Amino acid sequence: MKLNLQRQLVEIAGFLWRPGPECTGFPKGYSEKKYFLQVGENFSGYISMYTFYVATSQTVVSIIYPFLALLLYVEIRISAVRITDVNHSESLERIRTSRMIMYLTMCYIISSAPRSIIWLIPVFVHIHQWSLLEMIAGYGTIITSTFFCLNATAQCFICFLLSSRYRETARKLLRIRVRPAFLHDPTPLS
Questions:
Q1: Which residues does 114 contact at the CB level (< 8 Å), separation at least 6?
Q2: Where would you tag: which of 103, 113, 125, 130 has the fewest CB atoms within 10 A of its CB?
Q3: Dihedral, CA atoms, 44, 47, 53, 56, nearest 10 degrees?
Q4: How many domains does the chain have?
Q5: Is residue 185 domain-resident?
Q6: Nearest to 39 by CA among 48, 28, 31
Q7: Per-residue pLDDT tens over the stretch 2-20
Q8: Is position 149 within any domain?
Q9: How far apart are CA 40 and CA 119, in angstroms?
Q10: Average pLDDT in the 120-140 region?
């Protein structure tokens, strides 16, 4: 039986599958042919091509992101210096925003760089099955992906708690209305 991507089920000649004693519902003496999944040579080419694309895209993003963040940081700092004389509080707000951008960028680099490196390992190094390197790459991918997801989630909460503009945008996006605050007038109505 031919399957997609050059995989096929091949019968194991001379071997029959028989249900164990814990398997009930089969007639006495029941057996079936045994099969195994044979993977063609082209299938590993698809996997290595996928690995190459994932590794390359993650590495490119991990390299370009800090440069873009640095450009944004410089632009915000320049605008903060430019408006210092006009509006000091707005200047301080922009400086805080630029610090937050640098913090979030550093957290992103720390969480995405190991992921990129782990994805690049199989592109340049042949990993033998059941080797220590295969185990490190496999578990490393899981651990770094978990760390990356936790970082992304934490960044959402950090931005929501620290940035009033981010809160306003999130409320608009989620269609949450803020109730207007009523001022209490202590003078009696007479």
A1: 140, 144, 147
A2: 130
A3: -80
A4: 1
A5: no
A6: 48
A7: 445 566 778 888 888 888 8
A8: yes
A9: 23
A10: 88
Instruction: Tell me the pTM.
Output: 0.63
Closest Cα to residue 63, out of 98, 112, 100?
112
What is the DSSP track for 47-92?
HHHHHHHHHHHHHHHHHHHHHHHHHHHHHHHHHHHHTTTT-HHHHH
> Alpha-carbon distance 119 to 149, whole Å?
16
Q: For the chain, what is the total number of helices (H) and then of strands (E)?
A: 4, 2
Segment 144-155 shows an average pLDDT of 93
Environment class of residue 180 by beta-carbon count within 10 Å: exposed (0-12), middle (13-18) or buried (19+)?
Answer: exposed
Domain assignment present for residue 182? The answer is no
Angle at 54 (CA atoms; ends 100, 121), nearest 5 degrees: 95
